[in-house]
Each structure stands twice: as C-alpha cells, then as structure tokens.
Amino acid sequence: MSDLTELKTGEGRAKEITRRNFILGVIAGGAVVSAASYRFLSSTAHGGVFASDAGERLITLNVNGQQRRVDAMRQETLAWTLRYKLGLTGTKLGCDRAECGSCTVLIDDVPYYACSVLTHTVRGRKVVTIEGLASPSGKLHPVQQAVVDAQGFQCAFCMSGFIMSAVGYLKQNPNPTREQLAHGVSGNLCRCQDYTKILDSLMKGAEYMRRA
Amino acid sequence: MAVIRDVMPAFDLLQPASAADAQKLLAKHGDDAWVLAGGMDSFDWLKDRIKKPKVLVDLSGIDEMRGVRASGDGIEIGAMTTLTEVAQHAEVKKNYSLLAEAVEHVASPQIRNQGTIGGNVSQDARCWYYRDGWPCYRAGGNICYADTPVGRNREHAILGAARCVAVNPSDAAPALIALDAKFVVQTSKGERVVDAEDYFVGPEIDITHLTILQPGDLLTAIRIPGTWAGAKFYFEKVRDRNVWDFPLMNVASAMKLSGSTIQDIRIAVNAVAPKPWRLKAVEAAVKGKSADAATGEMAGKMAVEGAVPLQFNAYKIPLMRNLVKRAIGGVQEATWAS
Questions:
Q1: Which CATH number does the domain housing residue A146 bear?
Q2: A110: which chain B residues are within 8 Å (Cβ-Cβ)?
Q3: A16 Cβ partners below 8 Å, 6+ apart?
Q4: Which of A139, A160, B47, B123 gives 20 to 30 Å between its CA and that of B304?
C-alpha cells in the first residue's frame, strides 16, 4: 500500500483518481509502475498480503512478438500476468475455471485458456493475445475485420476469446464448414446467446483470410 | 460454490527436464508434492483452496514424456502428450481410432490442447461434495454426502460403490482398457508396468485415490499393443452438454469379427462405478455369437446385473443396458428397451 500512497500523492490528485483510470494510468506508465498495479488490486482484498514478499521472479515472456520482462509469482496464471502486469486487458477473465473461454490466447499458435496456464510455464513460448492480431500499422486481422463488418457480437465480453479460438482453429483448417468452425470454437461461451451472428462473422473472417 | 477471484495460494514450482528427475522430486517431497501435467484438474483444487500442496512438480518441460512412438508391435504414448495430439496422430487414427474418438469427446478444444492423456486417466473424482471440500470418505472423513435420500447423486455410481459413490470421469480410460493398454509407472523402486484396468482402484482398496499412484509415483507412458489394431471399435459418450461435460456414461469396445461372429471382444463402461468398469462376464458370454441386436440385448441385460441405483440415478441402468447393446449390436439395430 505504501507504494500506492506515494504514487497517488506524487501525482497530487489522489482523490480524483478513479480505480479504472488509475489502472489505465499505471498500465500506460510501463513496467516499473505496473508492479504497483498488482499491489493495488491485491491490497483491496488482502490488505497487501503479498506487498512485501510476493515471491516474484523476473522472467522474460514473448508476448505479441515483443520480449516483455515481468515479475511473476510462481502461482500466477497467464491471464493474471497479461491483464494486471502487462496491461493487456483485451484478454478477459470470465470464470477463471477453464469453463467459458473468455481468456483464450494463442501459445505457439494453439488456443489455451490463459486462466489455467501458469505464467512460469510459458517461458520460451510465443504468446499472442487479441492485442497482437492487428498488423503493426494498425490494420486489423481479417477475423477482427469480419467481426466489425458483420457486427458479430452484442456485449462482446466473450469476443476476444472467440476471435483467438477462431484464429487458432483457422490456422489448422483454413476452409472449414460452418459446423466444423462451430466445433472449433466450441470451447467458448457467449452469455448473450449470439452464436448465429458470431458464427456468421467468423465464417466471414475465414473467407477474408483465404482472400488475403 | 464460492468462486474465489484471486491468485492461488503460494507454492513452490519445480520444473524438471527428465522423468527420472521428476520422479525423484516427487519421492523427495512425498505428500507435500503435487503432479502438474496439463493442470486442467489441478487448478480447480488449488484455486478453491481445497488442496494446498507446498510443491508443484511441473512436467511440461519433459520432452521424453511427450509424443507417440512405435513400441513392439504397437505404440507408446508419452503421458504428457496432449489429448489433441493423440486425437490427431495418424497412427492412432488409423489403427486405434477408438482412442482417437474417445479423447476427441473430452471437454472442449482448449482443454484438449492442454490436457494430457496421462492427466485424463489420472484425474480425480468429480463428485461435487468431494470437490467442494466436504469432509467425506474420499477426503479422509467418515460420511458420504452424496449417498443420502436428498444427496445430489444423479451422476454417481450404480456399480462397485463401497461407502464412496463417486465415479471415475475419464473418457480415455475405457478406450484404453478395451485396447488392452499397459500403463508405465515410475516408482522409487523402479519401473512398474500394469494392465490398464489394474491402474484404477475402487474404494474397497483405496477410498482416497482413483488410481494406484502413491506419493512419489509417476505415470510416464501408456503402451498400446498391436493386438487390437484395426479391430471393430465402438465409442459413445452421453453427457448433458456437447462440450465441457464429463460423461454421464460412456462405453468403449473393441471386437474381432469373423463374418458377423464375435471372435474376441473387450468392452468397458465408465462413469458407472468408482473405476472404469470392464465387462468380463459379458465378453465371455458373447464370444462365438453373432454381433447383432439379439446378442446386444442379452449383453445389455447381463451388464447391469447387480446394479444398485441411488436416489436420482436410476436412469443409468437402462442407459448402460442400451449403450452396451449398441456397442455390440450396432446403432441401427438398437431400439428403446422398455
């Protein structure tokens, strides 16, 4: 908590900072301050149990083509590291139990539930999140573009997971039938029950990929 | 169940690079150690704070435990081979399609990408009283919460229960039993190779474990002999949802036919008992008979002999009867039995 207090005081407007803006600010601030974002989050529930002795180790992860150095606890999941240490909040945490698919990321091109992977076990492997799909110039991945064009999602909380699953599946089978693609993304749930439109847009994404 | 949204309690993470080192680490840490394969079973226990191991031995860095290779006249599958890798392997699909089909029915694509064949057969019971940390027999206590007039036991056992009525939830296990697979276990005393069906134990032998694995033991590989390669296979899994769900019941059989006559057969059913249930009496009874609906009908009735339903799982008796009937007599000829 002490780090957090200093940080807020240092910025001189502690009372005006909302939790969301604070987190976003910390994320934008980069690696040094991002460690504090974790303490901020954990301290709300635990009174800073981990603050002094988090058992963290500095490791290097290959995320979205970049070498990212991060302090990770041994018991930390990849979803936690991506969201709260690296600021990649496009990866959503739904159930945290490998039962919904919102946290799906690609590890060496294969879809995994990031909530159920220990960060320390992906050293040396290639992690791609929804933020890493677009080209460096900002051009969307064909599946992303198709989702935009076809307005595939309603609330879209599940969207990044669905897109990562679809991208992973299409690497294996670029020309699927609707039924095959449905099977390919069957490890993702949509609480809006928007499956017909989701499949429409993902099929369009497959078509865009074949044309690209 | 309260879902705790926070990081897991701290543990030490050991990442050996060889099976021998992993076994030594497990032996050294004994009861404090936890084997981490794919993690799909482990993380629920750890996140819910039901099990609190001090040390996790992560097997993901052990290359020798991954992959499918030739072994004798059959194949050997490393215990850390993922279910997706097993399902997509050319040799498995060609000669042992029973296993490919069984693992293709496990959970969801992401779970199959991460979950391993060794983990699938070694996973713990899914009885929710046990998983939620109730002090039941399986957890070392002296009561079963599921086997009571109001216990939620729709998914539980109709056969082989003794105090604990939880079932083995594996889809791969009955297929491996039907294929006469051998499980290779590394122990402090050396290597031990056991028949697939002997890898699993019921509560009458060990009520707190579903397998023979003791602290310090490690399942490293599964060998499938060529005996049943290319036989006539049948696998069917019944579950509530087509993704994620554990079986309400599954059946796996391998048959050698001469014309339509059954020369030899191995058949096992899972999620009916605390261990995968091989139907030896049925196998003996149908040998030499025609693989048709009448034989299937007889086999189905024989399979459920001695079954004792709990309050909410009587449906499992006709379900098992019909699954066995379909496995032997074929789906087209199956009709609803009254």
A1: 3.10.20.30
A2: 84, 113
A3: none
A4: B123
DSSP state of B7: P
Q: Which two tokens stand for residue B265?
A: 């057969």
Inspect the interface and report whether the beta carbons of B108 and A120 lie closer than 8 Å.
no
- Give the integer Cα–Cα distance in Å for B174 and B275: 10
| Domain count within chain A | 2
Q: Which residues in chain B have Cβ-Cβ distances shorter than 8 Å to A50?
A: 7
Mean pLDDT (whole number) for B163-170: 98
Domain that holds residue A142: 57-211
What value of ipTM does the predicted structure carry?
A: 0.94
Write the CB contacts of B61 (distance below 8 Å, at least 6 apart in sequence). Answer: A121, B15, B16, B17
pTM for the whole thing?
0.89
* β partners of residue B33: B55
- pLDDT, position B6: 79
Taking an 8 Å cut-off on Cβ atoms, the answer to whether A116 and B113 are in contact is no
Measured between CA atoms, the residue of chain B closest to residue A120 is B13
Distance CA B234, CA B254 (A): 7
Amino acid A39: pLDDT: 40
pLDDT tens, position by position, B176-209: 999 999 999 999 999 999 999 999 999 999 999 9
Confidence category of residue B3, pLDDT binned at 50, 70, 90 = low
- Per DSSP, the three-state class of B217 is coil
Same domain, residue pair A113 and A89: yes
Tokens (6 digits) for B127:
């009885």
**B137 phi/psi in degrees, rounded to 5:** -50, -50
CA A124, chain centre distance (Å): 18
Q: Looking at the complex, report in whole angstroms how far the Cα of residue B244 sits from the nearest Cα belonging to chain A.
A: 7
B45 at interface of A, judged by CB pairs closer than 8 A: no
